[in-house]
Design goal:
By secondary structure, the chain is of the alpha+beta class. Helix content is 59%, strand content 11%. The chain contains seven helices and four strands.
């Protein structure tokens, strides 16, 4: 089994190749491999941590959000975190903006979240700046907010599917441990309990209300995205 730094470096290199690819097909080839490796890395770390108590523990990492579209960026981070078995808290500012997001989960999973979010944010912000609604009377800002929502939703779907495929794979489990499914279920329970202790008064998240028509275009961009790399608190 490759060491942790080596595996993450391979994932970073695959992402770099995907971003420099001459064609969409070539980019997708690198992307698919990077996604697969990222998911496997998460399962490997979970099994190692179960075999070595204290190796990987739950905790939080707070990441600052910037305007414009801080709420959309926060949603992208929170949904990426959710797919990778972490929880999130959005720290709100007036006017529907978000100052920061705290990602809560095991250290190895938080590292994966940050690696992916860094890349996804770059992709999303680069693309959203070029987006315009089809109708001249529609707000550009509203369109871009709905585009970001669609992008984040589709990325979440793809990441969650990759994580599930990796969890379902046949693999050798360290002696004395239960199945991969039980190891992951126990980690989820540990994160839930630690999260509840850290944030005991988090209200239920409100459903986002978006008026723009960019949802479908954002989801289409999310399907193409490279997902292999790199106030008042509201729970997501």
């Amino acid at each position: 089994m490759r060491g942790k730094p080596e595996k993450l470096e391979i994932i970073r290199k695959l992402l770099a190749k995907a971003e420099r690819a001459a064609t969409a097909e070539e980019s997708e080839t690198y992307t698919a491999k990077a996604v697969e490796l990222m998911a496997r890395h998460g399962i490997d770390e979970a099994l190692l941590a179960a075999a070595e108590p204290g190796r990987d523990v739950p905790g939080g990492t707070t990441i600052t959000m910037s305007d414009p579209y801080s709420a959309g960026k926060a949603r992208l981070l929170a949904w990426t975190a959710s797919a990778l078995r972490c929880r999130s808290v959005l720290h709100a500012r007036p006017g529907g903006r978000v100052a920061a997001v705290t990602v809560f989960g095991f250290a190895s999973d938080r590292e994966r979240v940050e690696l992916l979010y860094t890349s996804l944010l770059l992709q999303a912000t680069t693309q959203v700046a070029r987006q315009r609604p089809a109708w001249s009377d529609e707000s550009v800002a509203a369109y871009r907010r709905s585009w970001l929502h669609g992008f984040a939703a589709e990325v979440h779907r793809r990441l969650a599917a990759a994580e599930q495929r990796s969890a379902d794979e046949e693999r050798t489990v360290p002696a004395g441990l239960p199945s991969t499914a039980l190891v992951l279920a126990d980690r989820d329970d540990q994160v839930d309990r630690a999260f509840a202790a850290e944030f005991p008064h988090i209200p239920k998240a409100r459903t986002a209300t978006l008026s723009g028509s960019g949802l479908r275009a954002g989801m289409s961009a999310g399907r193409r995205a490279d997902i292999g790399r790199r106030a008042v608190a509201t729970r997501v």
